[in-house]
Please model this.
Amino acid sequence: MTKTMSHRAVLALVEAALMIALATVLDVLVPPFYRFPQGGSVDLSMIPILLYCLRWGPKWSLGCCFVNGVLQYFLGGGIAISWQSMLLDYVVAYTLVFLCGFAAGRKLGWLWGTVLACLGRWVSLTLSGALLWYMYMPESFLGLPMVNPWVYSALFNGVFMILVMAVDLIVLGLLQSSRAVRERIMQKQI
Model:
């Protein structure tokens, strides 16, 4: 790259800013489908970020997802019990959404990318729940007695991320079914 940014780099940065803005608007202004009493909500805010990852791949997605994670905490009314909680629940969890970028340009990339992104978030949220939020573990969850914070955190965050993933896959599947959207919006940038 020369002293000035290439056209491609400028396009990637502008598109990242637009997708982060859209994700923030969807998070703040559009009511979620479901809000868990213990935290977390099932909404559409990951869709623009997933689209960005599918278009630009992991290299560009890493920065976009990191910035989105920071803004999710500060603008989305994030709740944390410590700085470690803020990092694991927001910054690391949303940064791991960049894993979706590894599926960019691949057959059924929208599907596998979404699964990878949600799996990455699940790992970070499970770590946070077991290490930091364990004192709020209920006596039972899904009809099962809860005595191990790792089991509870994996189950709770698993249910949460499966619901988020289902909504994301439905929306991305609908977008993918339109040829115009598939060719213009979901196409990997070279």
Q: What stands out?
A: The beta strands are 34-35, 41-42, 140-141, 144-145. The chain has six helices and four strands. Residues 47-75 form the longest helix (29 residues). The chain has a mean pLDDT of 90.
